[in-house]
Design a protein that fits this description.
The chain is an alpha/beta fold. Helix content is 47%, strand content 10%. The strands form two sheets. It has a six-stranded parallel β-sheet, with helices on both faces. A two-stranded antiparallel sheet has the order 6-7. The longest helix is centred in the middle third of the chain and has 22 residues, at 218-239.
Length: 391
């Protein structure tokens, strides 16, 4: 393990098929006005909305609805949510949905009490300031897994005008959800495309933190176990979306993939996310699929810079037999095994499938932030090369 660190995650997780039974009591710890955040209305079709409303009513809450959160929450929607929270002096923001809803709720929560002359986008997603004002508490009822937003301080917002999709991981634990209700059965009705996108998002959260460092690090062993479990569970879930064991394991993997645990004592990479988010800013494509489109071109590009870890990935995660193979051959076999799995479960393998074209590459490259924590920091020309190889 390298360095000195403090690990503190205050989010209370309520997990299992009876998790909703605890929501009413959890809500009683907060003030009377709740801003209910959700997306396009699927929770009204599958019965989750009624369960949430019943819990809110039983807790004696006044509910202010904030519907229509899109898969990539925009600056315009963020400002709308801030206005709702201010006008109603809300005491809790309850996000019911996936990572986009929870990211959005956190964005609203840190912005409500900003001075009126401060622009939230500029303050938090351009200048990356930390909140100096009170943060409204956030709670979550998770209906789609992948982002880990239910147990971290991250909030990703899209600005279509500037073609930027930016994530800010807030340092204050006050920005983390105070509680999150995780019922795996709530994920059963997701379309396969969305389920698979979430699964790859989980995998990439882990690999972003895994492919860095050269020390013997406990965090890497934890990451390998999470990846092996995710691979097994994903195969079962694709065959039977209502396999409770598989869906519960996927949900639990998602949470631990990005609650900062497997980043402890490590540098981390995150360049796949920067590439994917840049594509998303230009195409509005599903987040997890933007990652799957660029992950293999990126990892094959940086593999020579971190060859020992890529070889370890092959044996420890994919079970590749090292006998008779050079370190490079082993590393290549590991990424080939990852590709075969991605194709097996139905990941998007090309950015062209998401709407990116050759004539967009330069603009997408301009929207891509270059990270420094992995085995190799890309130059802009290398960003262009990786993007072209993803088409």
């Amino acid at each position: 393990m390298l360095g000195n660190f403090t690990y503190h995650n205050p989010t209370k997780l309520i997990f299992g098929d009876k998790a909703m039974d605890a929501l009413t009591e959890e809500l009683k710890a907060y003030g009377p006005v709740v801003q209910l955040v959700y997306g396009g209305g699927s929770i009204k079709k599958n019965g989750i909305y009624e369960q949430v409303i019943a819990a809110l009513e039983a807790a004696g809450k006044t509910v202010v609805e904030d519907a229509g959160v899109m898969p990539n929450p925009t600056v315009e929607k963020l400002n709308e949510g801030i206005a709702i929270a201010r006008e109603n002096d809300v005491d809790l923001i309850l996000a019911v949905g996936g990572g986009s809803c929870i990211d959005y709720a956190k964005g609203v929560a840190v912005s409500v009490n900003l001075p009126a002359d401060r622009d939230p986008w500029q303050t938090y997603w351009v200048d990356f300031e930390e909140p100096a004002c009170p943060i409204v508490p956030v709670g979550a009822v998770l209906t789609m897994v992948g982002t880990g937003s239910e147990m971290n301080g991250g909030s990703v917002i899209t600005n279509h005008e500037t073609h930027m999709k930016v994530g800010h991981v807030f340092a204050s634990t006050e920005a983390y959800p105070r509680f999150a209700v995780l019922n795996p059965t709530f994920t059963f009705t997701l379309p396969k495309y969305q389920m698979v996108a979430g699964i790859f998002d989980i995998m990439n959260h882990i690999t972003e933190q895994y492919f860095s460092g050269e020390d013997d690090n406990t965090s890497d062993y934890l990451a390998e176990g999470l990846m092996r479990n995710l691979i097994q569970a994903s195969r079962a879930a694709v065959k039977n979306p209502e396999d409770y064991e598989a869906r519960s394991n996927i949900m639990w993997c998602a949470t631990w993939a990005l609650n900062t645990l497997v980043a402890m004592g490590k540098s981390t990479d995150w360049e796949v996310h920067m590439l994917g988010q840049a594509i998303g800013a230009h195409t509005d494509a599903t987040h997890g699929m933007t990652l799957s489109a660029v992950a293999l071109p990126y990892y094959r590009f940086i593999m020579p810079y971190g060859l020992p870890k890529f070889a370890r990935f092959a044996t420890a995660v994919w079970g590749v037999d090292p006998a008779g193979k050079t370190e490079e051959e082993l590393a290549v076999a590991g990424l080939d095994a990852m590709e075969a799995w991605m194709r097996e479960i139905g990941c998007v393998m090309s950015a062209g499938e998401l709407g990116m074209t050759e004539d967009m590459v330069e603009d997408v490259a301009d929207s891509t932030l270059i990270m420094q924590g992995g085995y190799h920091a890309l130059t802009r020309d290398e960003v262009v090369q990786v993007l072209r190889e993803s088409l």
